[in-house]
Amino acid sequence: MSNIKVGVLGIQGDIEENVLATAEALKKLNLRGTVESVRYSESIADLDGLILPGGESTVIGSLLSIQGKVFQTIEKKITEGMPVLGTCAGLIMLSKRTYDKVVGETKQKLFGMLDVVIERNAFGRQHESFEADLEIPVLGKEPFRGIFIRSPIVNNVGESVTILTKLNDKIVAVKQNNIIGTSFHPELSSDRRLHELFIKDIVGFRKD
Fold it and tell me: What is the pTM assigned to this prediction?
């Protein structure tokens, strides 16, 4: 297999952390590949997989609205089956609908390809950040240490969505075909299994 090309949307958020986590996951899986921050449609069009990192979803959405061609390219690539991993703000961006329990329905621009409803900041604000061990069967028996920073939760899922894990009965990770979404920040953990799962989806996509 030729080099796998993975991009991390380089507009705002945990960009370098995701680049590092993905590079380490590729190495652990003994796969050749390149991982880089991407900002332009030409670079995104050439990818095998894309990460939408954690950050501020309203800022990312606003900047993507200005850069319409980038938004359209990502949309097209996901529709064509390119694997995508959205963490925290990235999960929000992928969802069909999002709201905030304080301000209500949000008007931010979304890709709308993940059949879920998201509640933003469901665990509180920045100073209420926390860590928790999560049981994620698809990753094996070892708990995954989830890092939650102003994290959303998934309040409703469509029929095609698989729930990967919950925290206190709240859905915090899902998968729908080529899309993985997490409320927490796997890139901030030393555990690379979620990034490995994402890369395995890319390998499957490349073989199709």
Answer: 0.92
